[in-house]
Design a protein that fits this description.
Elements: E1 2-6, H1 10-21, E2 25-29, E3 41-42, H2 46-50, E4 55-58, H3 63-71, E5 85-88, H4 94-105, E6 110-113, E7 116-117, H5 119-124, E8 128-133, H6 136-141, H7 143-149, E9 150-157, H8 161-189, H9 194-203, H10 209-219, H11 229-246, H12 251-265, H13 276-284
Parallel strand pairs: 1-2, 1-4, 2-3, 4-5, 5-6, 8-9
Antiparallel strand pairs: 7-8
The structure holds NADP nicotinamide-adenine-dinucleotide phosphate.
Residues 7-12, 30-32, 59-61, 64-65, 68-69, 90-91, 116-117, 119-120, 226-227, 231, 235 line the site of NADP nicotinamide-adenine-dinucleotide phosphate.
Length: 295
């Protein structure tokens, strides 16, 4: 298929590369030039990338970025044709997604929200999980593209439901990691080594995929970004906004979001969200990997 891939960040670059590897004809565009993908045609604007494409696939930071790529100057909108499909793998607002889809459909194209989970490693290894909102028929048409970039496609319902489910899932990831980080910090301060606590976690119902993924990085104190803190914080604001719109109270998330706010004030925004641990450590006067005996 002919695909325009827009947004070559941590996720998008790896996804576009996997589309090329699977033999698709790919045009790429990134806001900041110089992030090319071998085997893909580099386009100067989103509209130029989308010209002749069957499918336009986006993976950019946030709601404003998607709006800009679609409807801004030289945006995708001017290149939309009957039968085209626009797919958004960014994590953005479910209500904005509905508005974007309506505007895209007015030009005869279809719209699928397909945010992902699996992080940088999942994107690199074509092991992403796509969380999809949109028509079943359209989802089937782009299945070869999903298969080139991921291992699982889960349809959550019609337009916007992919984003809604993604936010609910990321809420759980943020809270589970916060629980892990707070548990590690308390254990360290009370004199339990991180490795011992992990032995307990993995032998019991405390075990979790989030901990399994993050623990090796935390033990090595490798906080380089797999999923940058600024993006998890952005997702938390989307969760809180969606909750306000739907009149849902999320008291735990509100508190965890305040931890992120301070961690970002401390300058950790471009580190992985796992680096929220560093703030807990600072408050406790302890370091998890090396100071099981306390400060
Ligand atoms: P990233 O590395 O920060 O890349 C962001 C991309 O968005 C870059 O290509 C950036 O372009 C572009 N962008 C930002 N603002 C823009 C604007 N106004 N107009 C056009 N392009 C703009 O982020 P990422 O980790 O790839 O994440 C991309 C999306 O996937 C986010 O919505 C994120 O929440 C979601 N996601 C990420 C992960 C993960 O583990 N990283 C996992 C699941 C979902 P420049 O190069 O010009 O800055």
């Amino acid at each position: 298929m002919r695909v325009a891939f827009l947004g070559l960040g941590i996720m998008g670059h790896a996804m576009a590369r996997n589309l090329v590897k699977a033999g698709h004809s790919v045009a790429v565009w990134n806001r900041t030039p110089g992030k090319d993908v071998e085997g893909a045609r580099a386009a100067a604007t989103p509209a130029e990338a989308a010209t002749d494409a069957d499918v336009v696939w986006m993976c950019v930071s946030d709601t404003a970025a998607v709006e800009h790529v679609l409807f801004g100057e030289n945006g995708v909108e001017s290149a939309l044709r009957e039968g085209m499909i626009v797919v958004d793998s960014s994590t953005i607002s479910p209500s904005a997604t509905l508005a974007f889809a309506e505007r895209v459909r007015a030009r005869g194209a279809d719209y699928v929200d397909a945010p992902v989970t699996g992080s940088k490693i999942g994107a690199q290894n074509a092991q992403l999980i796509f969380i999809v909102g949109g028509s079943e028929a359209t989802m089937e048409r782009i299945r070869p593209l999903f298969e080139a970039m991921g291992k699982t496609v889960l349809r959550m319902g019609d337009t916007g439901k992919g984003q809604a489910a993604k936010l609910a899932g990321n809420l759980m990831i943020a809270m589970i990691y916060e629980g892990f980080a707070e548990g590690l910090t308390l254990a360290a301060k009370l004199g339990v080594p991180a490795e011992s606590l992990l032995g307990l976690v993995n032998a019991s119902m405390i075990k979790s995929g989030v901990v399994e993924y993050k623990a090796p990085f935390v033990l090595k104190r490798d906080f380089s970004p797999n999923f940058p803190m600024r993006l998890m914080f952005k997702d938390m604001q989307l969760m809180l906004e969606a909750a306000r719109e739907a009149r849902v109270k999320l008291p735990g998330l509100k508190t965890v979001s305040e931890v992120y706010e301070v961690a970002i004030e401390e300058g950790h925004q471009d580190l992985d969200y796992a680096a929220t641990l560093m703030l807990l450590e600072k408050w406790a006067g302890v370091e998890v990997s090396s100071a099981a005996s306390g400060a």
